[in-house]
Amino acid sequence: MSGESGTESLVFIVSGPSGSGKSTLVQQVLDLPGTMPSISVTTRFPRSAESTGKCYHFVSDAEFERMIARGEFLEHARVFGKYAYGTPRRWLDEAQAKGLDLVLEIDVQGAAQVKEKLPGAVAIFILPPSRKELERRLRERGQDSDEEIARRLAKAREEILAFNRFYDYCVVNDDVTRAGREVQAIVTAVRCGSARNRKRVEDLLASFGGSSGNG
User: Distance (Å, rounded) from C-alpha 197 to C-alpha 108?
Assistant: First the structure.
């Protein structure tokens, strides 16, 4: 069920430790009709296969600070004390204008900020099946040193500890096909229970005429 112009867009947050496979599952959500992604802004340099505007908008530290000063972010944070990441508020405005639901792929810090500003946002946490499997995935990527992998594993523990504070659902990504069905099912269930659907009930009752009370 896609959003409709003039109705409130739903916001879905997807988070998970590095190596949990959250990007793949975010794509499963975006395969549903009526969804659109946000594109994060970052100060890190593009990797070899990346171009600006596809997964990220790459900006300088100075421009990032100007965006903070102008109040342009729904959330922003500095990761591992190095590069900054942020979600521009304009994606929510665009989703609202188009009648679509917005999907954010952000970390726990970002999720906490968005949930504070948008309490109705639905947060989904992607869990790896085990610490051992998470480490295997990180090493298999071949992108990080042993020191960096150890840091990512420590951060993963901190992120998992934050689950009960900020997240509404969790999906264990031990089988990507099953996990993909689960994240899609969560989105579908939330849509069916949203105020948008309750308004449809009211409109349908009004079409019958008479009182909408019981009896």
Answer: 29
